[in-house]
Design brief:
Layout: H1 3-28, E1 49-55, H2 58-66, E2 71-79, E3 95-102, H3 109-118, E4 127-128, E5 131-132, E6 138-142, H4 145-162, E7 170-173, E8 178-179, H5 187-190, H6 193-198, H7 204-209, H8 211-220, H9 226-242
Parallel strand pairs: 6-7
Antiparallel strand pairs: 1-3, 1-6, 2-3, 2-8, 4-5
Helix pairs in contact: 2-8, 3-4
GO cellular component, one term: cytoplasm
EC number: 1.8.4.11
InterPro entries: Met_Sox_Rdtase_MsrA_dom, Met_Sox_Rdtase_MsrA_sf, MsrA_MetSO_reductase
């Protein structure tokens, strides 16, 4: 064989090897999902609204609101104070609060206020139930004049219903809301390994964004309205009966 033919053959062989390596490298880079991410239900351009309330321990507050129809996600955190970057063990003059992202087509601020008043004792001073301290005070945070008006009207009505007892709830314009540490988000749900497994053991970031996690957090705390609690019971029982391990929607 002549030298020129040998060079051509060797060149072709080298090119072939390079192609194989590149294809193998690409194949190695493919990652198959080990869980099913939640698909957003609403793909429209309808903007969500945000409300923030303080009504005692934020673990319970988050669970109270998360179960309602129209709630997209909930986040616990700190608001109402002056300290920058508060933390759970050092929150300064902030109150434990819950931020609620909601679809105004399904639930409105007035309805959220009704849940707020129903879900805690607005007459208790310096705490809620066994939780005593300034961080557990009752506050309605408002975004703008209309929300302030609705909050004031609802407080006046609550005061009328309370007769001689003084409603201690404050009404404030919302300043900075500081999300709490990850271990406090969806706290009641995280105490239930079975429910976490049922939705695919989502990583923390996805869990905090998940509408289903917000609803199951309320379910785990048994704070959903009775109708919703029964609906979730039925859905979970159906999943168990069929043996399908992933709960896709509620």
């Amino acid at each position: 064989m002549r030298l020129s033919e040998t060079v051509v053959i060797l060149s072709r062989f080298v090119c072939f090897v390079i192609v194989i390596i590149l294809l193998a490298d690409r194949a190695i880079g493919i990652r198959f999902p080990d869980r099913i991410s939640e698909v957003p239900k609403d793909s429209s351009n309808q903007p969500l609204k945000t409300a923030v309330f303080a009504l005692g321990s934020f673990w319970r507050s988050e669970a109270v609101f998360g179960c309602l129809d129209g709630i997209v996600r909930t986040t616990v955190g700190y608001a109402g104070g002056s300290k920058t970057n508060p933390e759970y063990r050092s929150l300064g003059d902030h109150a434990e609060s819950v931020q609620i992202e909601y679809d105004p087509r399904l639930i409105n601020f007035r309805q959220l206020l009704e849940v707020f008043w129903f879900s805690h004792d607005s007459r208790q001073v310096f705490g809620q139930g066994p939780d005593v301290g300034n961080q557990y005070r009752s506050i309605i945070f408002c975004n703008g004049t209309e929300e302030s008006r609705l909050a004031a009207v609802s407080k006046e009505r609550e005061q009328t219903n309370s007769k001689s007892s003084i409603v201690t709830t404050q009404i404030q314009q919302l300043g900075t809301f500081y999300p709490a540490e990850p271990e406090h988000q969806n706290f009641e749900l995280k105490r239930n390994p079975f429910l976490l497994q049922l939705i695919g053991n989502l990583p923390e970031e996805e869990l905090e964004r998940s509408s289903m996690a917000a609803k199951l957090n309320g379910y785990a705390a048994e704070l959903c309205p009775s109708k919703i609690q029964r609906q979730i019971d039925a859905k979970i029982n159906e999943i168990i009966r069929k043996g399908w391990p992933i709960l896709r929607e509620l």
